[in-house]
Amino acid sequence: MTPDPFYPSVLARAFAVLCLLFVAACGALPGGSDLQDKTVLTDVPVSSTEMLSLLNAYRQQNGLPPLRHDPRLDQVSQGMAQHIAKRDSMDTWQHSAFGLSSRLEKADYPNYAGAENLGAGYADLGAAFRGWQGSSGHNKNLLNPYVTRVGIARTNRNTGTWRNFWVMTLSRPVSDGRPG
Question: Which residues contact 72 (CB under 8 A, 6 or more apart)?
Fold first, then answer.
């Protein structure tokens, strides 16, 4: 009798079941399920031109001078964006006057004034900026008359609550002179 080609043999079925069990068991191996849940942080470039356009137009509407982009402040901002993204939270002692002062000092950035805006969850720069405008403390930083320079950074997180973390650092370096 010739076997029917449409019905696998018992041995072939047993092999198929064993393969499925093996694949399913891979998730139970140490690190198997962790591969999907591993947190990955990605620094995302932010257009300094777009940031300056939004910020300086807003400052001009409020009778304030424009700020200049400072790549060193981008670096300070990026360090903080990574810090809060790792934590999936903006609740950190580093987000304080002392924390910002320490980070600027560590970056060898002597200054007369400094301020910082954090944001989480915003999908793009425009949304982050509108969020800062809508918060009295953050808005005060955007309109700070003593700062002269600005940097910005964004870090994305593939897991967690917020996914997008934004930091804007504003400062007045000593090289720009004392506030008048």
Answer: 107, 109, 151
In angstroms, the CA 134 to CA 137 distance is 9
Instruction: Give the integer Cα–Cα distance in Å for 44 and 114.
Output: 23
Tokens 């940031």, residue? 51
Q: What is the pLDDT of residues 137-174, one digit of tens each?
A: 999 999 999 999 999 999 999 998 889 999 999 999 99
Residue range 92-127, pLDDT digits in tens: 545 555 689 999 999 999 999 999 999 999 999 999
Report the amino acid identity of residue 96: S
- The amino acid occupying position 93 is W
Task: Provide φ and ψ at 99, rounded to 5°.
Answer: -65, -45
**Letter string b/e over residues 109-120, b meaning 16 or more CB atoms within 10 A of that residue's CB:** bebebbbbbbbb
DSSP string of 120-155, one letter each residue? ES-SSHHHHHHHHHTSHHHHHHHT-TT--EEEEEEE
Closest CA to 79 of 105, 48, 54: 105
